[in-house]
Amino acid sequence: QVQLSESGGGSVQAGDSLRLSCAGSGPTFSAYSMAWFRQVPGRERELVAAIDWDRGTTVYASYAEGRFTISRDSAKNLLYLQMTGLKPRDTAVYYCAIQTGLKTDYDYWGQGTQVTVSS
Asked: Which residues of 33-48 are buried (b: 16+ CB within 10 A; e: fewer)?
């Protein structure tokens, strides 16, 4: 199985930046795509950004485009989310997830890392 572990969250002020990391492990680690999601209590989990593992092409939620950058180091099974211009509404638990095949949903999830943005 694939194991994912997020890190890099914390408490920051509006306008600050954070870089989240997700480390993937497992003897058969292989990704079609990986993504960052976030969840606020009382709301459904929502997609922040996703990246095609081989090509590096990306997709962003509208609120993230221009502020957040998703990237990966495929050789090291690492996923990143660089966040700039953080806003209080970005406060959430951020999760990384992996899609292991074209026709699969996201198969594995990390435990999440808390991001708190104060005004």
From this structure: bbbbbbeeeeeeeeeb
Residue with structure tokens 């003897």?
27
Average pLDDT, the chain: 95
The CB-side HSE value for 79 (13 A sphere, CA atoms) comes to 33
Q: How confident is the model at residue 81 (pLDDT cuts 50, 70, 90)?
A: very high
Neighbours of 20 (CB within 10 A): 23
What is the length of the chain?
A: 119
Supply 50's token pair: 């996703």
Q: How many Å apart are CA 8 and CA 27, to the nearest integer?
A: 25
Q: In angstroms, rounded to a whole number, what is the distance separating the alpha carbons of residues 35 and 70?
A: 8
For residue 2 the two structure tokens come to 């694939």
Pairing of the two strands 113-118 and 10-13: parallel
